[in-house]
Specification:
It is built from four helices and no strands. The chain is mainly alpha-helical. The chain has one domain. α1 runs antiparallel to α2, α1 packs antiparallel against α4 and α3 runs antiparallel to α4. The longest helix is centred in the C-terminal third of the chain and has 30 residues. The chain is elongated and about 60 Å long. 26% of the residues are buried.
């Protein structure tokens, strides 16, 4: 109990492997996406009639969305939103083809983090104390 409020200290929620790995991938991808926005701005690779500074805006907004999505990976819709954002990053290859390579690399890391992380979480749940370890035969 804390002396000032009389409340018990808050115990942080335990994060699963999929959530931890996924948030790491999204955080690093956010940095690269922001830099891709700067690249689009610097190369002026925007459609005719669109100001080049929109590249910075798009990169910044997408980077912020990636970081925020990392906070919601405990929910199924957070994982789905991560997949949608992977597709949005891939769409950047329309403007700068090299972004397609970045999207494929991070998309692969995202797939590994979510699929293998979920498998690790299921395994850890089975091995947890009190879990029923019968194999159903």
């Amino acid at each position: 109990m804390t002396a000032a409020t009389g409340d018990a200290p808050r115990v942080p929620r335990r994060r699963g492997a999929a959530e931890s790995l996924g948030s790491i991938v999204l955080a690093f991808e956010a940095i690269v996406v922001f830099l891709a926005g700067l690249t689009i701005f610097g190369l002026k690779e925007v459609p005719p009639g669109v100001e080049p500074w929109w590249g910075i805006v798009a990169g910044t907004v997408l980077a912020v969305l990636l970081v925020l999505t990392g906070r919601f990976l405990a929910h199924r819709w957070g994982i789905a939103l991560g997949w949608v954002l992977q597709f949005v990053v891939l769409l950047g290859a329309i403007l700068v083809p090299a972004i397609g390579l970045v999207a494929l690399i991070f998309g692969g890391m995202w797939a590994y983090a979510t699929i293998k992380g979920a498998a690790l979480d299921r395994r850890n749940a089975q091995l947890a104390p009190g879990a029923d370890i019968t194999n159903g035969d």
